[in-house]
Amino acid sequence: MLNAIIADDEKLVRKGFISVIDWEKFGISLVGEAANAKEALILLQQHHVDLLITDITMPGMSGFDLIREARMLYPRLWSVVLTCHHEFDYVQEALRLGAVDYIVKTLLDVEEIDVVMKRITDRIALERQRFGVEVEHPGASETPSYTLALQAGTNGPTPADLRLSMFEPAKEAGPGLWIVPLPGVKSWSDVEELLLPLRHYPWCMAAMRDDEPMGTKKTGEQRESACVSSYLFFESRAGAAPLRLTPGDLSHWEASRVIGREGLTEWKERWLDSRWIFHEGEYGKLLQALESSLFTAGLFREWAAAHFAQWEGIFHAAEDHPEYIRRFGDAVRWSEVKEWVSIYRNEVRQRIQGKFAFSEGVVLSLLAAVKYVQANMGSDVNQNEVAKHVNMSRSYFSQCFKSFMPLSFGGFLRHTRLEKAKELLRAGELPVYRIAETVGFQDEKYFSRVFREHTGSLPSEYREREG
Fold first, then answer.
1. Are residues 245 and 281 in the same domain?
2. What's the mean pLDDT in 170-190?
3. Domain end: 130, 165, 183, which one?
4. pLDDT at 216 (0 to 100)
């Protein structure tokens, strides 16, 4: 039998809630009621209480503050919040504080309250099993338990931020991928019941039995984590039940991918050259390639960050950069990425068309010129050579390039070389003279002088500070 107390400052609401529930039916003994948090804390001192049911908005100490203080005093206390707000922020805060569930008072009827109370008592029973309390089946400990995989974005809470009483601490297994043991959870129906409150979070979820190998190729945990991330990225749906991983699922998934992680290098280059923004054929090819690959949300964030860094000031204003970073950080599913890319693509096209009176052909030629400079910066590349490569006259190319880019051709070439030099210096593998040669400076002293003029540091100083 669970001992419970209720805290709600509205007496009629509190009495009505008490009367509508058949407490004995759910194995609950109501040992007290309180009109505020202070009275609730007194009841907790006077009685052995297993379950605290509290309103959120009360005079003085709020329900959230009550849960915080009560859990510090009584770590094994379960809590449920009563609220009139069916909003994500309230649900999120309640779960973060360790509440096992929440009840929306305005949506309750007799049938609904039975469903909610069963869900609450079932969840408490699961946690009691986990800690070896009142386990009804002697052989249950031999039954396999489950492990949860969660894919989170870069904005909002991560699984590590939550302090849910029914979960083990989350461990990061890859970029945005978290693994959470679920000891004591013996069946798939228990998994679904336990994870029901987490559907409000913008995460991808899958669970697997601990005695069932995931079945990926045996090339290390890193590859397996990448495969799990890709599976979650493409297969999960917002607000849906967690995916169920069974033996062979991931090996079949990996085998069905036409393009592996190694093959994505080519497509990253095509993503960065940005022809897909202005050319429908390239856009279609890019989407089709990624849909048949082991692409992940983490790779998308990496690619998007590189794209923004490369085209800032051209495709979008510098002040828009933080908003774009926030938006792509929210994308954890392929459907969300496609929507985001489509919106971004339209925004860039409108910006370019509004800013420049260039045809699509000229824009594509200028993008090809940028790509050519980046690929050939180590040689004695010049404006005549690039104009010829993109089939434009030198004078017209110079005019268009200066309008399109925030720098002249010479300024852009120097900027590209220095940015590459910074990257190589941070890597810390090559000596300075080799880096100078790699990015197109034949004289190390001249390279050092130009580098200091633009960064305020010598290459060696930059490496020591940033490497």
1. no
2. 80
3. 130
4. 42
